[in-house]
Amino acid sequence: SIQFKGSKFNDVTNITLGDYLEFKYKVDRQQSKKPVSDEAIKLMKRDFHLILGKRLKDINNADIQSWRDSKVCLEVTKRKSFMIIRSLFNTLVARNYMSFNPIDKMTFKFDGKEDKTAYHSLSYSKATAYIDSLNTSDEGKFVVLAIMLTGARPVEIMRSTISQYIKKDDSSYNVHYLRKYAKSSARTVYVN
């Protein structure tokens, strides 16, 4: 095991990313509000295997951009890996090993569907039979009905107001959600 003593390790940024992940990162993060999980360390070792042998102080945006360009997967998966490696450098800054995070923020496009389509051919009799069969309060039945008709998530229904629904045309509404209650800020909902 590596001992963090002597001139070689006086500056933590002189060690490699792999050695830091293996021997020091977990200890540094234990003192923070959110300790790092073993899964996060495994993810970093797997996704950033090409720079594991690079010293921490030598890793920069070019390395991360090279990783991003070569990784073939959804942008949302890349974003997760990017956020984990960037948090490692934020920890280095918080522990005063570095004066700033050398990895700049990046934007990642959203891979998912932009629009959520609700039930287009929902018959009134089937919907009412289903709603009536629920063993819940009238308020709960209303939430289920609203989910069925709009495709919204429960928290979006319970915390929304009429001002968030903007009619686009006779068959669709643009719904704007408060960011803290929803995964997206807006989407189109189609209704019959």
Give an account of the 3D structure.
A 4-stranded mixed sheet has the order 1-4-3-2, with no helix packed on it. It is elongated. With 192 residues, it is of the alpha+beta class. The protein has helices at 17-23, 25-30, 38-47, 61-70, 75-94, 124-133, 138-150, 154-158, and strands spanning 116-117, 165-169, 172-176, 186-190. The chain is built from 8 helices and 4 strands; from the N terminus they run αααααβαααβββ. Residues 1-9 have low confidence and may be disordered.
Mean pLDDT: 79
Helix amount, in percent?
Answer: 40-55%
Total beta-strand segments: 4
Distance between the termini: 66 Å
The helix/strand series, from N terminus to C terminus, equals: HHHHHEHHHEEE
Given as residue ranges, the uncertain stretches (5+ residues, pLDDT < 50) are 1-9
